[in-house]
TrEMBL record:
It holds the Pfam family Peptidase_M3. The keyword 4Fe-4S does not apply. This is Oligopeptidase F. The keyword Hydrolase applies. The lineage of its organism: Bacteria, Bacillati, Bacillota, Bacilli, Lactobacillales. CDD domains: M3B_PepF. One of its GO terms (biological process) is peptide metabolic process. Residues 114-182 form the Oligopeptidase F N-terminal domain. Binds 1 zinc ion.
């Protein structure tokens, strides 16, 4: 069935962006106003830190402009994402991005100026202008990194070298996303088709093992043909990370990356340690998979085929909204009121159409609704996507309603906790209301696969990422032979029931996250924290539920580890990780009995 054009999607199934700007003319007027005001920001630098009043007024003007330009950009990006063929809104987006870049250049004086303030001067400023205290955490977060910020000339030179330092990552993206020569494979109808990343994700879940094997072999033949090139791009990217860390006075790239959000390295170390302690659970799960599939040996291409059959449940968008509200009701009236507002006021854009951005996200700005983009598929995954993105949206709504603009957002370290807490609540709800053993088995397996993909797999990536940065720092050349050997070693430790020696050693060539500078561990820590929080919400008391809501309202008013501690999870300890693995084991036990 052909996808509809954007203009043919029923209005009630589109998001209402007139809540941001009533029409394009209003957007253009605001764009012109901000463009005219932009030069005034640079003028602030002359007297920015001469006294408390100027300091407060300067910060207020900067963040007022930031707030306005964020709203401008939100309208442009949301408008273009629902139809990327619409050149009109693509031009709006380009204009907004250009203005944003000019804004960042205009306020480049701000951070060095704040770092140049002596602590005694800041103390006097706070005493002279009490209203400055609203900026205290923001200022503290900048001062926290003081010893890692170089003089303005040095920082300017490093910034100017940004394109060169990012060249390896850019080359990888172009090569992997558009120029990689994919081969052909056999689909489930027996026809030879050219492989793509999207098609691979479908075929690797096929019930036909030969289809899975051919897709697997074809994919890694393509990536393997360029493994030396990919080794060079990855090595260049790692060197850029290590260089940036050293010149900014960090002991290593991992510490530098985590310190941006004031995350201590013990959070990372604890994750790897505890996950490795519980690898026998993953081995039990892969052994169960091998048994159910009736295989004498388990290959890596056997890890993604559903072992409980296809889901018998399907959901229209309206049915999914009802089911989501039933599940999320446990969070209480305040949370459910926000969910109802999101569901009933054209804040979600669910229908897939020609030119629409793929996937799903929750977006917007401080002064907009927490808009959700979906591409509805009427299946079990779509239901989970809805509660996941609604978790982000309610998090955004609560933050914006309870924090000033300055603290009205949150880092990715916290973002994935709010969304996957909803997923875990939904899983518990579905299990509590399902008595059919076949359907229970499907839900249990869905959870275990999600856990495997989010905690075990992302931690596996985190281990490899740490290794490649340490190896480069120690002077080792990141050749494809070294990368293949290390990746295979880690993979075999994680998936002990699989046959060693497969082309999975090349998987590092197709993982873009290895270019993101210690990013993936946050998926694992977030999901583990979500398991603990969902349990507190469902089985705990009102105080624990309120603590979670307070976490959602905190935004970035505190450092991330402090913020999540408000919800009852201390991520510097291992208790939350142990709790997650206990849940995995309980559900694995039940699935083993059912199968």
């Amino acid at each position: 069935m052909a996808l509809p054009n954007r203009k043919d999607v029923p209005q009630e199934l589109t998001w209402d962006l007139t809540k941001i700007f009533k029409d394009d003319t209003s957007w253009e007027k605001e764009y012109q106003t901000l463009s005219n005001q932009l030069p005034q920001l640079a003028e602030i630098s002359d007297n920015f830190t001469t006294n408390a009043t100027n300091f407060y007024d300067g910060l207020t003007k900067i963040f007022s402009f930031d707030r306005q330009i964020s709203k401008l950009y939100a309208y442009a990006s949301l408008s273009s994402d629902v139809d990327t063929t619409n050149s009109h809104y693509l031009s709006y987006r380009a204009k907004a991005e250009s203005l944003l870049n000019q804004y960042n250049a205009a306020i480049s004086f701000m951070q060095p100026a704040i770092l140049g303030l002596a602590d005694s001067t800041l103390k006097n400023f706070y005493q002279e202008a009490s209203k400055l205290n609203e900026y205290a955490h923001f200022i503290d977060s900048i001062k926290h990194h003081e010893k890692h910020v170089l003089d303005s000339r040095s920082e300017s030179l490093i910034a100017a070298a940004g394109d060169a330092l990012n060249a390896s990552s850019s080359t990888y993206n172009v090569l992997s996303n558009s120029e990689l020569p994919f081969g052909y494979t056999q689909d489930e109808n027996g026809e030879m088709v050219q492989l793509s990343a999207g098609l691979y994700n479908q075929l690797i879940q096929s019930q036909d093992r030969n289809v899975r094997k051919m897709a697997f072999d074809s994919l890694y033949a393509s990536y393997g043909s360029l493994q030396n090139t990919f080794a060079q791009t990855l090595a260049g990217n790692v060197k850029a990370h290590n260089y940036d860390a050293v010149v900014h006075n960090y002991p290593d790239a991992r510490t530098a990356s985590l310190d941006k959000n004031e995350i201590t390295t013990d959070v990372y170390d604890n994750l790897i340690k505890v996950v490795n302690q519980h690898l026998p659970l993953l081995h039990r799960y892969t052994a169960l998979r091998k048994k159910v599939l009736g295989l004498s040996e388990l290959q890596m291409y056997d890890l993604y085929v559903p072992i409980t059959g296809k889901p018998t449940s399907s959901y229209t968008f309206e049915q999914a909204k009802v089911k989501a509200k039933e599940a999320l009701a446990v969070l209480g009236g305040e949370y459910l009121d926000e969910v109802n507002h999101i569901f009933d006021n054209r804040i979600i854009d669910p229908i897939e159409s020609k030119g629409k951005t793929t996937g799903a996200y929750s977006g917007g700005s401080y002064d907009t609704e927490p808009y959700e983009l979906l591409n509805w598929t009427n299946d079990f995954d779509a239901l989970y996507t809805l509660v996941h993105e609604t978790g982000h949206s309610v998090h955004s709504a609560f933050t914006r309603k309870n924090q000033p603009y300055l603290y009205g957002d949150y880092p990715i370290f916290l973002a994935e906790i709010a969304s996957t807490t909803n997923e875990n609540i939904l899983t518990e709800y579905l299990l509590d209301h399902e008595t059919d053993n076949q359907k229970r088995a499907f839900i249990l397996n869905f959870f275990l696969d999600s856990f495997k993909g989010t905690i075990f797999r992302q931690t596996q990536f985190a281990e490899f990422e740490q290794f490649i940065h340490e190896a480069d720092q120690d002077g080792e050349a990141l050749t494809c032979d070294l990368l293949n050997a290390k990746y295979e070693e880690i993979n075999q430790r994680y998936y002990g029931n699989t046959v060693p020696g497969s082309q999975i050693k090349l998987e590092w060539t197709r993982i873009p996250h290895f270019y993101y500078n210690f990013y993936v561990y946050q998926y694992a820590t977030g999901f583990a924290a979500a398991c603990a929080l969902a349990n507190n919400i469902i089985h705990g008391n009102d105080k624990q539920k309120q603590a979670y809501l307070n976490f959602l309202k905190s935004g970035s008013s505190k450092y991330p580890l402090e913020t999540i501690k408000l919800a009852g999870v201390d991520m510097t300890q291992t208790t939350y990780l142990e709790s997650a693995f206990k849940l995995f084991e309980q559900r694995l036990n039940e699935l083993e009995k059912l199968l």
